[in-house]
């Protein structure tokens, strides 16, 4: 790219583009970190022609990888035929009908009815409203509280921000919505204590005031926290005991990411509502949704007296729905769920080798292609580095220099490197990623005395 054009882009970015979840100070001082121009498979290319492994599938979402012409073609065909029409007031169209039916067929248990949105935050806010509406028309309007977990990330709309359990996200404008509570995750305390903390909160608040318990099957932005095997079975039992709805946020874990079509399938647990987004279209078009159980749908059908006063202009967008259908077809036809499981094992094997070789690597984990490597001052005691050392940020930079894009999770003074590569990744590419990670950590290790 011409130097002048590049300079212009950087200047316009600084002057006119407010970036989501970014340091504005960093942007103003250094300009955008990268201006991408192309994507192909697991790779992204910037305007200087430098190629990167997109080891985060961008925002945990490009599950089938970049540059898939089939999705562009699906969008083009649908846009040429019917780019947009409404789904309000019971108007309908074929792509949304087919997508709702497809998702109902894929989701576990009796999650057979689907409300569509444009993304994860909207899906979670929709789930909260639907849960409260369900209790209201069931004659229990006092069931309003939503219990979610510390370290949870559920998005940035008003309800989703309040459900998120990472305090940094609340500071911007305060916690806007009442009746959201946060309990411990099993991350450091294990299943029994974590389940007890939920029980204690339910008892303290009064079970008759709780609408739903909300959780990501694997906490993503909070640090890729994989629960112990018995945790979600315990959650399900507890919700049943108190008659509380269980909402699973499968925005990251859905559509093959963890080596199962949906994350909770690892533990054979079926929620009452499931939110999804990201991998449903692999990011080629914004789309998300909430799948609800037959028993919730039955109540909505029988007791709803008038209009369901909840809907987004783009609920069931025809082109987005067509893209989602094609994306799901690719996930199924190419066996990407199985590939995620197999390549996830390979990735974890690589992480374990690095842990044996470098003495600042603490816990390493992966479930399918959702993994993390923790950097610690002492792997035996799990003692963390002090935040000023910015160890994770330095590793991310060393990876970036070597052409790998990852994400650091540093809330609560952790130094976690998160990984979520596209589900199409090959064994050779996993090995390449692992070798580069090894080299980057070693380089940073040498600077630590
Ligand atoms: N839920 C989870 C688990 C997420 O990771 C995210 C986004 O990262 C969201 C919800 C919010 O989705 P969106 O950014 O599409 O609103």
UniProtKB/TrEMBL annotation:
Keywords: Aminotransferase, Pyridoxal phosphate, Transferase. GO terms for molecular function: pyridoxal phosphate binding; transaminase activity. It holds the Pfam family Aminotran_3. The keyword Transferase applies. The keyword Transferase applies. PANTHER family: AMINOTRANSFERASE, AMINOTRANSFERASE CLASS-III. Belongs to the class-III pyridoxal-phosphate-dependent aminotransferase family. This is Putrescine aminotransferase.
């Amino acid at each position: 790219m011409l130097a002048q054009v590049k300079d212009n882009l950087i200047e316009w970015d600084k002057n006119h583009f407010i970036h989501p979840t970014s340091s504005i100070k960093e942007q103003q001082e250094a300009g955008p970190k990268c201006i991408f121009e192309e994507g192909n498979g697991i790779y992204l290319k910037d305007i200087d022609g430098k190629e990167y492994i997109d080891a985060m599938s961008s925002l945990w979402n490009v599950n089938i990888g970049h540059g898939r012409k089939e999705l562009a073609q699906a969008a083009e065909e649908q846009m040429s035929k019917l780019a947009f029409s409404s789904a309000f007031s019971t108007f309908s169209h074929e792509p949304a009908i087919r997508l709702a039916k497809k998702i109902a067929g894929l989701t576990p248990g009796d999650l057979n009815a689907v409300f569509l949105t444009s993304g994860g935050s909207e899906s979670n806010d929709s789930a909260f409203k639907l849960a409260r509406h369900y209790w209201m028309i069931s004659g229990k309007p006092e069931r309003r509280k939503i219990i979610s977990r510390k370290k949870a990330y559920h998005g940035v709309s008003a309800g989703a921000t309040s459900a998120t359990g990472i305090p940094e996200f609340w500071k911007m404008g305060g916690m806007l919505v009442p009746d959201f509570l946060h309990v411990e995750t099993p991350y450091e305390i294990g299943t029994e204590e974590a389940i007890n903390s939920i029980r204690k909160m339910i008892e303290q608040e009064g079970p008759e005031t709780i609408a739903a318990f909300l959780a990501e099957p694997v906490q993503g932005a909070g640090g890729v926290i994989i629960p112990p095997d018995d945790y979600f079975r315990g959650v399900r039992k507890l919700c049943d005991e108190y008659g509380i709805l269980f909402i699973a946020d499968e925005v990251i874990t859905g559509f093959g990411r963890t080596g199962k079509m949906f994350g909770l399938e690892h533990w054979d647990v079926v929620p009452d509502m499931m939110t999804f987004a990201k991998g449903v279209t692999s990011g080629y078009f914004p789309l998300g949704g909430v799948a609800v159980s037959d028993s919730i749908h039955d109540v909505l059908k029988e007791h709803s007296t008038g209009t369901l006063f909840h809907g987004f202009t783009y609920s069931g967008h025809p082109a987005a729905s067509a893209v989602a259908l094609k994306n799901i077809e690719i996930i199924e036809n190419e066996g990407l769920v199985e590939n995620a499981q197999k390549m996830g094992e390979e990735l974890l094997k690589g992480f374990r080798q690095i842990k044996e070789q470098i003495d600042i690597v603490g816990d390493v984990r992966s479930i399918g292609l959702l993994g993390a490597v923790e950097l610690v001052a002492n792997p035996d005691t799990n003692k963390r580095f002090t935040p000023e050392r910015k160890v994770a940020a330095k590793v991310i930079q060393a990876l970036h220099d070597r052409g790998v894009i990852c994400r650091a999770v540093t809330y609560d003074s952790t130094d976690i490197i998160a990984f979520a590569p596209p589900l199409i990744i090959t064994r050779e590419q996993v090995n390449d990623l692992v070798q580069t990670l090894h080299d980057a950590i070693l380089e940073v290790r040498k600077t630590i005395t």
